[in-house]
Structure prediction request, 108 residues.
Amino acid sequence: MDAVFHALAHGARREMVARLSDKPLTIGELAEPLAMSLAAASKHVKVLERAGLVRRTVRGRRHVCRLDPAPLTSASAWLEFYERHWQQSLDALEAMFGAEQTPQEQEG
Prediction:
């Protein structure tokens, strides 16, 4: 899971993941809208591959990348746990402050 969060920590890699969610793309297609070289895009793809988020197949000189969303499942579950935790804490805090209001504050 550390590798997934590391991979998603960079905006260019998040953009690549988002675009790969639509369809497989070549390294060149991933690089183009980000205004980066093929070498830079390839380095970002390697980080995504190490995290298990991307699978690359080579067809001649073309490197085609596909999203593998499986590693996102464990990261999502981890985030959802803490989202529930903090939501419950904030709800309790809101209830505590609501209980402290005077009758005039509740009317107004």
Observations:
- Helices lie at 2-8, 11-20, 27-31, 38-50, 70-99, 103-107.
- The chain has a mean pLDDT of 88.
- DSSP finds six helices and three strands in the chain.
